[in-house]
User: Which sequence fits this backbone?
């Protein structure tokens, strides 16, 4: 009995070890040992459920996982509202079709448009080429800016000589005269503005109009000059100084002039007569501030012409001291420019030289004498 138990035992390192019958190897002393290769053990292939796939995703199943996220059922059913992805291939891309417009309108029943198949990428290349060409043309225009006649890209640029002459004339005038200037204002610049004035009535008119210019422009003043002359009796100081309150109100209502300005003109007429009695004439009084000779600043740009000067400031202070109204420094400078006490035409303007020739001392002219209107 003891021997039967010992038959299933094997000794490892001198110790008896019980082994199963499948692992026992019987070694016979007369037979050599052979290489015994055990048969491979085949295990059943594990099956993964949906929950297992979510818990332990495999690298090879990443694409199937993305497909499952879109709602594609393995059985071919779409469980979500999204459209199934379609494979993209270069062979299935439709060709780009450009529509070529015909110059002539096709009659009814005949095709007027010819479809032309264009290879992909041709339109973008054409757009790039067009943009490059436009950039080159722009650089060419900048390089030849200001040239009237030049051969550009094999073509000679023709310029109308009449337009060039007219443009040059506009450039020679003072820069505040533009092509959009009113013809009446243009004639005033070419004939009156800056010309020396020594007549007392004309000086009184210009002084009044310069005061009215505040809030308006010279073009509006010139268009209404005949109305102002009719309202103030041709700017005769002897008559204006006798205006009654009723006449002042009537002039204000009839000609649309502020009643305060009408009163100011009547007060200035009295001051003109007082100056005439003291200095002999209004002309002698005003031209005495510039030593009976026009000032010539010699401006090259209208932006250099100030709105008031030290001379206009001194004249304004003296006029205000004598009781004149609406004679601030800016108004006085505008009056000096209009009456020719200062030649503010630009040096490039042809009227600058013409006005200089017209200038002569006021003492050589016979001045008008004013008498007291109360006499």
Assistant:
């Amino acid at each position: 009995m003891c021997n039967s138990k010992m038959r299933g035992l094997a000794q490892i390192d001198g110790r008896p070890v019980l082994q199963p019958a499948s692992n026992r190897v019987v070694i016979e002393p007369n037979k050599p040992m052979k290489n015994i290769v055990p048969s491979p053990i085949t295990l059943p292939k594990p099956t993964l459920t949906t929950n297992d796939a979510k818990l332990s995703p495999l690298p090879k199943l990443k694409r199937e996982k993305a497909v499952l996220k879109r709602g594609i059922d393995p059985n071919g059913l779409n469980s979500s509202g999204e459209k199934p992805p379609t494979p993209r291939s270069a062979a299935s891309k439709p060709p780009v079709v450009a529509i070529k417009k015909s110059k002539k309108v096709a009659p009814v029943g005949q095709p007027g448009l010819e479809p032309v198949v264009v290879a992909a990428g041709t339109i973008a290349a054409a757009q790039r080429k067009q943009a490059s060409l436009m950039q080159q043309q722009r650089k060419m225009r900048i390089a030849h800016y200001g040239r009237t006649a030049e051969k550009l890209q094999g073509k000679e640029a023709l310029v109308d000589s009449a337009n060039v002459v007219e443009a040059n004339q506009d450039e020679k005038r003072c820069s505040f005269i533009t092509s959009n200037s009113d013809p009446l204002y243009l004639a005033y610049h070419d004939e009156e503005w800056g010309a020396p004035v020594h007549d007392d009535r004309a000086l009184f008119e210009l002084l009044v109009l310069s005061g009215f210019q505040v809030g308006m422009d010279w073009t509006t003043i010139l268009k209404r000059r005949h109305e102002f002359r009719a309202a103030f009796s041709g700017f005769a100081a002897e008559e204006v100084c006798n205006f009654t309150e009723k006449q002042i109100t009537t002039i204000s209502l009839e000609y649309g002039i502020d009643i305060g300005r009408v009163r100011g003109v009547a007060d200035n007429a009295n001051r003109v007569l007082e100056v005439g009695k003291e200095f002999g004439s209004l002309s002698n009084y005003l031209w005495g501030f510039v030593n009976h000779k026009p000032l010539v600043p010699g401006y090259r740009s209208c932006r250099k012409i100030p709105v008031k000067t030290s001379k206009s400031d001194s004249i304004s202070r003296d006029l205000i001291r004598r009781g004149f109204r609406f004679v601030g420094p800016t108004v006085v400078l505008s009056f000096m420019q209009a009456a020719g006490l200062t030649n503010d035409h630009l040096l490039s303007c042809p009227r600058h030289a013409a006005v200089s020739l017209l200038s002569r001392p006021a003492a050589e002219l016979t001045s008008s004498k004013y008498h007291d209107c109360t006499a």
Observations:
- DSSP finds 16 helices and six strands in the chain.
- The two ends are 178 Å apart (CA to CA).
- Residues 2 and 8 are 11 Å apart (CA to CA).
- The chain has a mean pLDDT of 74.
